[in-house]
Specification:
By secondary structure, the chain is α/β, with parallel strands linked by helices. The protein is built from 15 helices and ten strands. Strands 1, 3, 4, 5, 6, 7, 8 and 9 form an eight-stranded mixed beta sheet that branches. A two-stranded antiparallel sheet has the order 2-10. About 0% of the residues have low confidence.
């Protein structure tokens, strides 16, 4: 039986980009803010959802009728006893099967390498190249995505079958051997379980092994495009809302203070130079810049090729260091990061209440709820506890050490 939902007259689509657990946390916080602020549309009752990588997890849940707040409970602060509970630490389980499978190849490859060195006068470095197949294709297993989403979508009024949804759901993965983007949920690909499609779409190469589906292997859908929003645009969407959680950080601009409600405790975090963060910071900035530049080109193409569709892009502020400094796999921060995304999105909506955003929404029977956006007491997660005297002292000491570090760095720069 089809999952029944009430739909607005306008054809509204939501496209969610990837970004790992951090991206999912940002999107959940932003969607909670949107769901509260929009009058005339509900985020879990739209016409078409397009998800890539971590965005596929969110899109699949929304298409099954889960509200953004339910997603927050399941992914951010849920209790293990909850039927919707999803623990992000499940994605940190080593890929034991992959390690064993590759390890079994080692004796034969070592023998072949030794034979090539001894009898064929092949250089040692050239011969060692033959050991490449021993390297695992992924460090962690994301099999729990399939297992846990199957459990979540087996509940009443939910489904793990694309064809049983009342809305359109598209989850994009990349077929490894052909490097072609595959839109699970489209005709010919809608018989694959939704949970398996999410697992394939989020299989980031190097982190997770490719996912086998019907004899072929699939990896992260973001290899080809960041959003794949054209899937919804080709379906003649009237309004397309896009969420992209990964943006490069602009350390040269005046950095934005954290967006917090009244009574929130959030110390400003500063990034003087990307270089100061070391290799991980440089690599993160490089990856974000590559992904974002590709998305910018895609957005320009969408605006030119689909002028009849109103397209709204929501993403973090390039001057905000909070999400940039977060450890992508630091799950202890997820409540704070979700709250930050929630408040930042509310702030963005407040600053865009006038045209053109208001006109774009109005054309499709949607309005921004000013009373909700102006309510500074609204929170996504429980308030932070006031720091103890020791905590306040440590915080003050940390600020002093930061200031001292900046003074020393400035002095070093003057000497150079």
């Amino acid at each position: 039986m089809k999952v029944s939902k009430h739909k607005p007259a306008a054809r509204i689509a939501l496209a969610l980009a990837g970004g790992g657990p951090l991206g999912a946390i940002y999107e959940i916080g932003a969607l909670c803010a949107l769901d509260e602020a929009l009058s005339g549309a509900q985020i879990n009752q739209l016409d078409h959802y397009v998800g890539v990588s971590a965005g596929g997890f969110i899109a699949a849940a929304l298409a099954n009728g889960m509200t953004p707040r339910q997603l927050c409970t399941a992914f951010i602060d849920g209790a293990p006893a909850s039927p919707d509970y999803f623990d992000p630490s499940w994605l940190m389980e080593p890929a034991y099967d992959e390690f064993v499978r590759r390890g079994l190849m080692l004796p034969g490859l070592l023998a072949a390498t030794a034979w090539n060195i001894a009898t064929r006068r092949v250089s040692t470095m050239r011969a060692l190249e033959g050991l490449a197949p021993v390297l695992p294709t992924g460090i962690f297993s994301n099999a729990q995505i399939d297992i846990q989403l199957t459990r979540m979508f087996s509940q009443a009024r939910r489904t793990n079958d694309f064809r049983a949804l009342a809305c359109k759901l598209t989850l994009v993965a990349t077929q490894l051997d052909s490097a072609q983007a595959i839109a699970f949920g489209s005709p010919g690909w809608d018989h694959i379980p939704i949970s398996k499609a999410v697992q394939a779409s989020s299989a980031l190469p190097g982190l997770f092994p490719p996912v086998a589906i019907e004899g072929k292997y699939y990896v992260d859908g973001a290899m080809k495009k960041t959003l794949h929003a054209s899937v919804a645009l080709d379906e003649r969407a009237d309004l397309l809302i896009c969420l992209n959680p990964l943006v490069p950080f602009d350390a040269t601009a005046e950095q934005q203070e954290p967006a917090t409600p009244a009574g929130g405790q959030a110390a400003p975090r500063k990034i003087p130079r990307i270089m100061d963060g070391g290799l991980t910071s440089v690599m993160s900035q490089t990856f974000r810049a590559m992904i974002h530049s590709r998305m910018e080109l895609g957005m320009k193409h969408y605006a030119h090729a689909y002028p009849e569709t109103d397209i709204i892009l929501i993403e973090p502020d390039h001057r905000d260091p909070e999400l940039y400094l977060a450890n992508t796999f630091s799950y202890a921060q997820r409540k704070q990061l979700a709250e930050h995304a929630y408040q930042q999105t509310r702030q963005w909506l407040r600053s865009h209440q006038s045209d053109p955003l208001a006109s774009q929404l109005r054309r499709h029977g949607i309005a921004l709820r000013e009373d909700v956006l102006e309510d500074t007491t609204r929170r996504l997660c429980a308030p932070w506890k006031s720091p103890s005297r020791l905590g306040q002292a440590l915080g003050t000491l940390n600020e002093l050490m930061d200031e001292l570090s900046q003074v020393v760095r400035h002095a070093q720069q003057q000497r150079q």
